[in-house]
User: Fold Rhodopsin domain-containing protein from Penicillium angulare.
Amino acid sequence: MSSSGAEPSLTSAEQYLQSLTYGLIISTGILSIIVCSLRLYTRAFIVKVFGSDDIAVCVALVITQVFNGLGVAVVYYGEGQHFENVSPANRAIWLQLYYGAMCVYLYASLSVKISLLLFLRRIFVKAWMNWLTTGLMIFQVLFSISGSLVLAFQCNPARGAFDLSITDAKCYSQFKLYQITLYQAVLIFVADVVILIAPMVILCGLNMPTRKIIALMAIFGTGIIACIAPIVRFSTLDYLRYGTTDLTYDSASSLYWMAIEFNLGLVAGSLSSLRPLPFFRRFGSTTNSRYKVSTGDTPHELQNAKNSNARGSRKKNSFGMGTTILQDTLNESQERIVHVPKGERLPPHHRDI
Assistant:
């Protein structure tokens, strides 16, 4: 730093890393805002049914954007620069913001997971899916609260994690933080994989045109993009594993990969809800599909019968092996899928179809 007190100019590597971090956080954040806004508009004004998963998306979008805002502020105050090039005043602010992002990121992950799990519960009416999603939601809540507390109290006193004036604080070593964050990243990844695979199991067993199955799998399979982010983030934690004295520079990649994970998770969970929009309506739909409007959040379903004349007709309460019920509805804004094995009867609220 020069004697005049002016900060040194950034190197090309620092400029590139800051631009990359800004670009990825802002672009994925804007994408999630656009897609989620379209989803909420579709549900509220076209479908005119607003379910619990839509409310969860609103909450997740707010929390994710808070994390994005923290990320942008972290970059503004020094993330992507070498620590020695960050002014003492900016270091103090950066440490506070970085600490805040560490405490918030698990709640951002939690909010996205809850919105996805509630979405799956509404679309796939299966007993095992209800048990799976309920179990995952309980686990995610407990995991996120406990994990955030561990990070919030990584120092004794807790303020020592971001207040440089406290010189006698006892804190976790960087390797200990590496173990904690890696453990959390692995559990987040496992939950992502389960959420991705669960609907595929049902989709693979559907008795419906292959073209439509492929289209549905493509829609739900977009979640694989969000699953890739935590895998990549594993390698970005090496700065904690081996220790670093250049935290502002070495932690940048971990920050933007978290933003990618959360924002694309919201995008993936909202894409199928855009089908009632004119631009998306024909994607994955058969020529005989039509939208029916009802007043409840749990609409009646139409059987996907080979005979097109059977559309709208009433069916018996029990179905043969491999029978699938599929509905393209405006009030659901995506296919609601039920696989009914032989001898199994529909739940009471699905029998009048």
